[in-house]
Amino acid sequence: MIVYKVDRLSRSLLDFARIMEIFDRHQVAVVSVTQQFNTSTPMGRLVLNVLLSFAQFEREIIGERIRDKIAAQRRKGKWAGGTPVLGYDVDRTNRSPRLVVNAAEAQQVAAIFELYLELGSLLPVVEDLESRGWENKSWVTKKGIARGGQAFDKGSLYAMLTNPLYAGRIRHKTALYQGEHPPLVKLDLFERVQALLQRNGRAGTAAIRNSHSTLLKGLLHCQACDRAMVHTFTSRGVKRYRYYTCTHAIRSGRGKCPSGSLPASEIEQLVVRQVRQIAADAGLRAEVLRQARSHLNDALKSLGQEQKALQRELKEHHAAMNRLSGASTKTESSRPPGIGPTTGRRGWR
Ligand SMILES: [Zn+2]
Prior knowledge:
By secondary structure, the protein is α+β, with helices and mostly antiparallel strands. It folds into 3 domains: 2-75, no CATH class; 88-204, Hect, E3 ligase catalytic domain fold; 208-270. Helices cover 53% and strands 14% of the residues. The protein contains 12 helices and 12 strands. The strands form 5 sheets. A 4-stranded antiparallel sheet has the order 9-10-11-12. Strand 5 (138-140) and strand 6 form a beta hairpin. Helix 10 crosses helix 11 (282-330). It is flat, with a radius of gyration of 34 Å.
């Protein structure tokens, strides 16, 4: 076995040891073109092990240095790289990249923090941003590939609202450091947003806070989109408005769904009224029961038919398999070794 350099074969000492064991068993020696050793001698093996140990040591040291460097940079408040965020551009003209404010985006960021406090939960903010056409940061990578620029969803909005960069800080693991870059949001506003996010829980939806009054939760269905409708909530001033909204509209924009949002209390009252009427009217009650039974019978009947059809199909498949396996036994001698029909037939039975 000839390699250019030992670490071309494997970068891990443990891996290498295993490979060498296999080579040994088959009496294969390893020779490196650029390094002077030959594993056919005990001395050669020792040299190989030393070389590999140093190679691994070197890699680990480099990794540690990079981690130390990032930690030191963050302690100094320097941005240590990562995905660009809305509100800042990355200035790469100096040796270490720097965050500079993008004025137009910075205004959006400040407005989004305010909007969250005003609307009180993530979902209405997502919808609002959708209607404004505001999107996540878009940028071009060093290789010239366009990235980002998607509509906000709850996940990306949450990530944005909890990013300490906006309050002028740099996070390293659990510690925060005063950043070199200018903040886009006042510390007071940032902390009020964190408090509200925490109160709302990770999901931060009004639906969770209002769960006691979401009567039709999980029951309403948007017929046009064939999607579930979920409970949403907006507030204007002190007044709160509850809605049931199609999830298609929430994820892909209101224009995508013809049903849109239904005012929650009205549809709830309507359903409650109808349920009450059914309960009060004996004739109606009997009719509902009769219809339910007939639905059930129809369903049972069609399931029975389906079962019969499936059984018939299964029988046909079995017959086809038997024909095929019979045919392949006859032509066994003409098949290449290794794919004989015996193994296949065992699987078919
Ligand atoms: Zn819909």
